[in-house]
Amino acid sequence: MDDGGHVQAMREGFHINWMNMRDASTGQVMWESGEWDCDQEEMEAQIPCEILRCRQVSRELNFSSVEVITSLRLVQSVIFKGELLEEWNFHFGFVIPNSTNTWQQTIEAAEEEEMLPAELLSGNVVIETTFFDGEYPIMTQRVRIWYL
Amino acid sequence: MGLLSILKKMKKEEQEARILVLGLDNAGKTTILKKLSEEDITHIMPTQGFNIKSIVQDGFKLNVWDIGGQKAIRPYWSNYFENTDALVYVIDSSDRRRLEESSAELRELLAEDKLAAIPMLVYANKQDLLQASPADEISEVMGLASIDDRVWTIQACSAKSGEGLQEGMEWLIGATRK
Fold first, then answer.
1. Which of A24, A100, A104, B4 could be cross-linked to B48 through a Cys-Cys bond (beta carbons 3.0 to 4.6 Å apart)?
2. A58 CB near a chain B CB, below 8 Å?
3. Which domain of life is it from (chain B) (predicted)?
4. Model's pTM, two decimal places?
């Protein structure tokens, strides 16, 4: 079997469609990306700074895959001024060919006194999401966060 | 209300729970999960793959896997059985015509080794509709009483109004802890 060919096809058939962020306690959408342009190296998200006051925040990501993927996993890093603040790993496993899927992650916010102020965070935070099939990277997407 | 408050009831030693949500297409699986998270349920499309809700709080992780129920997707369900701690099976109580089909799918699931002995919650959804069969009638038609290899319950609910959802989930978490 030509592994290189399959990885290439997998990469070509993999798309992030949209992302959003919610106040998890009310389910209210605070920000949504709309149609996503995967080809851009870095996206920008302008998020209302009220989200920093939410006790729980949910991040939702919708993606499609043309090819079957046997061992999909994701590494999501929150980077502040080039330094890693948080890292999340999630193992999806099997992905159905020609499927559209969502992953929603709800996380508890830091205590208020540990929270960096919006002015300091704005423009300095990047959320980097990388999808892998086992060890093979499929795609990386970077979103720079601005708090309004 | 909702999945967040349920997490608080889990014990310290249970670091992670994986819940699998299955049922025929249009049963209301995605709507139930969205309603449990207080999200808008007016624009829900048929699931063409999976939807995962992954909730982390105080070191606990609850992963809820909702897999599309369309006939073409059902053969892929078995890829998601591994390490499942509890099963939620959703039924459209207003669709009498497909109750037998739903019942047959459930029987197949119950025979799966990888899902053996795990607690099962059956949601008899869409109770807000006039033509909905009551939960006890569905239970009888599906022969649920003969299930003796696991703890299970049937919960009447309406994903639209939210009625019964919380009760069902609380039962499930309680049963998973035992």
1. A100
2. yes
3. Eukaryota
4. 0.93
Residues of B with CB under 8 A from a CB of A: 3-4, 34, 37-40, 48-58, 68, 73, 76, 79-80, 82
Fold classification of A3-147 (topology level) = Coagulation Factor XIII; Chain A, domain 1 (2.70.50)
Cβ proximity of B66 and A118 under 8 Å: no
- The answer to whether the CB of A65 falls within 8 A of the CB of A99 is yes
Q: Is B57 a catalytic residue?
A: no
With contact defined as beta carbons under 8 Å apart, do B164 and B155 qualify?
Answer: yes
Q: What is the ipTM of this complex?
A: 0.90
- B98-139 pLDDT, tens digit per residue, is 999 999 999 999 999 999 999 999 999 999 999 999 999 999
**Residue A96 sits at the chain B interface (C-beta within 8 Å):** yes
For residue B56, with 0-12 CB atoms within 10 Å meaning exposed, 13-18 middle and 19 or more buried, which class applies? Answer: middle
B96-103 long-range contacts, Cβ below 8 Å, gap at least 24?
B96/B131, B96/B133, B98/B24, B99/B133, B99/B138, B99/B141, B99/B142, B100/B141, B101/B24, B102/B23, B102/B24, B102/B27, B102/B142, B103/B141, B103/B142, B103/B143
Domains in chain B and their CATH numbers? 3-176 (3.40.50.300)
Please write the tens of the pLDDT for every residue from A15-42. Answer: 999 999 999 989 999 999 877 776 678 9
- DSSP three-state, residue A64: strand
Instruction: Say what the alpha-carbon torsion angle A104, A65, A95, B105 is, to the nearest 10 degrees.
Output: 90
Nearest to B51 among A64, A93, A102 (CB): A102
